[in-house]
């Protein structure tokens, strides 16, 4: 196949000649991690580098300027299994400087490249490839949506090759669950630019998790694929940039949203809203007036108390306990914080700590009947734990005693007859007076013998 000019400006900067056709129609997008073999030569045929000689494929992130310009352009056009020759003009390679000592200044280079494979850009929080992005249409500008941004997207969701969800949808980033948007899409959208269209491969842990989605007949832990287009977005104002009064207004909005989500049983979304309240005041300014500071403290206290309640509802008891401790740092005698921490400690099998919390509740409010009831539960659990521990230790000591007895019996079995005769005093029916002397005793007449009444005497001394 004849060489084709694939340079964006059609200036002959990158010529591509396909030696071996690839498989399928898909090519890698910007951000993909590609894996290739290559051999680089000067125009006179002098080889200056080869991954094949090292028997080690070369990996790089496409479109990130980690390789020469010609590679970012040319490799993006290659299919899996394709082999092609790229002829790269100096402006698309190492320019006037070259790359001494092997590549001279202003050198035109040839690369034979074999496309082995590629993976999408890994957007997963844990870096485990559970969210991969394959760009279809490059977005414009440099801005991307932030948490809370109002996004307008078109999406097509597929499971097992079949479309199950196709729609236009608008939502605040971070609250997608309210309109049926999975975590993986929300995480990925934070990397999208205006107008970008990308294909996403999302593992079950960032999709419908271990629950599945009966509405779409999607089983638990199912992997999904989406094509998502970011049609428009408006960035959310960052709390830390706002003056005190404006920040208070925004935080009150978070609180109202959190309360609404809580009443609807959407505890995950409620937790997100209450956490926004906490983080909004992490960078409080020193110049804020006393009234703003007092209101901020009340809002933080309310957020921690509500977080504790949400965590208790979702059986995240360690997080509930921590939220209560933060609340108590703001209000040491807070009845709700003490009670909810006691509940968390009780579920976490820490009855003594729970008892301290419920006793503190009763000091604040002696009429709190719920705390009295929970206090009885603490004492009952503590008693059960002590009985269980006692039984465990009893069993443990029985095992030790049995082991010691077995060890003693093994030692006895390994002793000479004479020793067994002497030790027979301790429960053995082997007194010398009741049996014939052993060969050892006959050869050693001076040995200590036991007489019939159990006393000892030396003979022939």
Task: Explain briefly what this protein structure is.
The protein is of the alpha+beta class. The protein is 38% helix and 21% strand.
DSSP helix fraction: 25-40%
Report the uncertain regions: 418-434, 447-461
Rg, alpha carbons = 39 Å
- Strand percentage, roughly? 15-25%
End-to-end distance, in Å? 116 Å
Overall form? extended
Number of helices: 12
Please tell me the overall pLDDT.
88
Structural class: alpha+beta
What is the count of β-strands?
Answer: 15
Order of helices and strands: EEEEHEHEEEEEEHEEHHHHHHHHHEE
In words, what does this structure look like?
The protein is of the alpha+beta class and 461 residues long. It is built from twelve helices and 15 strands. It has helices at residues 51-54, 69-75, 183-189, 244-263, 267-280, 290-313, 317-330, 335-347, 351-364, 369-413, 417-423, 439-443; strands spanning 4-5, 14-20, 33-42, 47-50, 58-61, 83-88, 109-119, 121-122, 131-137, 150-159, 162-172, 197-202, 224-234, 449-450, 456-457. Strands 1, 2, 3, 4, 5, 6 and 7 form a seven-stranded antiparallel beta sheet that branches. The protein has a six-stranded antiparallel beta sheet with strand order 8-9-12-13-10-11, with helices on one face. Strands 14-15 form a two-stranded antiparallel sheet. A hairpin with an 8-residue loop joins strand 1 and strand 2 (14-20). Helix 5 (267-280) runs antiparallel to helix 6 and helix 6 (290-313) packs antiparallel against helix 7 (317-330).
Keywords:
single chain; 461 residues; alpha+beta; 7-stranded antiparallel sheet; 6-stranded antiparallel sheet; 12 helices; 15 strands; extended
